[in-house]
Amino acid sequence: MTEADLNATELADCLDGRIGLLREVAQTSGVDAFIVTARSNLLYLSNLRASAGILVIGIQDESLQLLVDFRYHAAATTLTEKQVAPRGLEIVPVTGSYEEALGRVLGHAAVTRVGIEAEHMSVRQWQWLDRRAEVELVPLVEVVERLRMIKDDGELATLRRAGRLLSEIVPDVLALAGRRRSEREIAQEIDRLVLQAGFERVAFETIVASGPNSALPHAHPTARELSDGDLVILDFGGVLDGYSVDISRTVSVGRASAACSRLYSAVEEAQLAAIETARPGVTAEEVDGAARTVLDAYGLGEAFGHSTGHGLGLDVHELPRVGRIRAGVKPEMLVRGMVFTIEPGVYVPGLGGVRIEDDVVVSGSGAELLTWSERGLVVV
Questions:
Q1: Once rounded to an integer, what is the mean pLDDT over residues 16-29?
Q2: Domains in the chain, ordered, with CATH?
Q3: Which of 95, 114, 143, 287 is the 20 to 30 Å CA partner of 348?
Q4: pTM
C-alpha cells in the first residue's frame, strides 16, 4: 500500500481499518492499550518509515499516539498534515529516552493493563517499564503480524508490480552464471540488475551458490569460480515501496550429470505439486506436505530440511509459515490474500543442491503466481 496506489482518503481509511481490527483483537486480551515498537508494524499501522518510534494504541478511549524523536518528528507531522496517517494520530516528541516518554504517556492515560509485542520488546525495555510505569505488561504474540498476513488491494497491487519487475530480470540473471566468474562477482551483478529494475534495495543478501556450495541452503557468495558440471543456485529479491519479493532459480554450468538432472526434476515436480495444492481452505502444512510427498517418492525427503515457504510483505520473512506442523501450534488455514513463497529444495553434499522458488498469492480458487520465468533446467 502506497500513496501512489491510493488517494489520501483511501489511505487513511485503510490505516483506520487496520487500527480498528487491532483494537478488536487486543480487546479480547483485556488490555487498555497496546504498544507497537517493531519497525514493520509501525509502518503498517501509521505509514511512518522510521528506524525508531513507538505507537500507543488506546483500546477503549480510541486514543492514538506516535512517539518519535527529532529525526522523524517532521516526517510524522507531514503525514498527519497530508492526511496520509490514521485519523486522530497525535505526534508526541521524544526529547529524552523512549522509555521515559512512554512512561509519561502511559501515566497520563490512566491505563492498568498494557499489551506489548512479545517478539519485539527487549528485556531492558520490559524491566524499565515494569519498574517505573506502574502498569501490568501483557505479552501478546503476533497480533499485528497476523493482521499483516492477509494483504489488502493496495498491498497486492504493489506485490504484483514487484513480482513482474523481478521476473523480467530473471533471463539476465541466469545469463550471468558463466564459467570462470566468481560467486561474489555474480552476486554483485545481480544486485545491480535488481536496482536497475526499479527496486529501492535488495531484499536480502543475494545467494550465489555453486558446485559444492549449492548443497548449503543459505550459502554466502565466495571467491569460488564456476566450472563445468556445477549446479548453481541463484536466490535474489527486491524491495518495492516497502514490500519484498523473492525468487530462486538453479542452473547448470554445461551439461548436467544424470544425478544432478534427477535432483532438478524432483524439485521441479515438488514445487508444481505445492503450487497446485495452495488454495483457500487447505492448510499451509498441506502445501508443505505436497512438496515433501514428491521428494519422499524420489528418496530425497531427508535432503529437504527447510520449510516449503514463508510469507512475504513488509518483511521478506513473515507469516504465514509454510512448513511442517509444529507441536502445540494450530494449522494455518489458507485464505484469500495471503502471499508467500513456494521454494522446495534438496541439498546433497558431494553432489550439489537445487532450489526453485516463486511467490504466490492465494486467490479465490487457487494460487496466482506473482513471479514467473523458465522453470526447466537452464544450461549456461
A1: 95
A2: 8-147 (3.40.350.10), 153-379 (3.90.230.10)
A3: 287
A4: 0.94
